[in-house]
Design brief:
Helices cover 62% and strands 13% of the residues. With 104 residues, the protein is of the alpha+beta class. The chain has one domain: Arc Repressor Mutant, subunit A (Orthogonal Bundle).
Length: 104
């Protein structure tokens, strides 16, 4: 039985950790965490509904959503004249749950 840990590939590890750090930086904002919680509950939601829930102007909400989409936290779907958003990868919900549990 070999108990030795497999050797870590530094480049692969740093690439993954850099991406994780970028995602955590984006999530490190109360309004964005609230948006994630809302989308966790509703799955898909249009910008106007997210804006109303977060109580931010439509333009500010759109900026948050676009930023979150750009780094891969969210995905979007255009439905007629509305853009709807959802969590891109439901593995992110685990991170959200940990953050919320630690905040209690």
């Amino acid at each position: 039985m070999n108990l030795a840990q497999p050797e870590l590939d530094r480049d692969t590890c740093l690439e993954r950790l850099t991406r994780a750090a970028q995602m955590l930086r984006v999530m490190a904002h109360a309004d964005r965490l609230f948006i994630m919680q809302l989308l966790q509950r509703e799955e898909w939601a249009p910008v106007y509904r997210i804006s109303e829930a977060v109580r931010l102007p439509h333009a500010a909400t759109s900026q948050h959503l676009n930023y979150m989409k750009r780094v891969g936290l969210l995905k979007s779907d255009r439905r007629a004249k509305e853009v709807w958003y959802a969590i891109a990868d439901h593995e992110l919900v685990k991170i959200l749950d940990c953050i919320c549990q630690c905040a209690d």
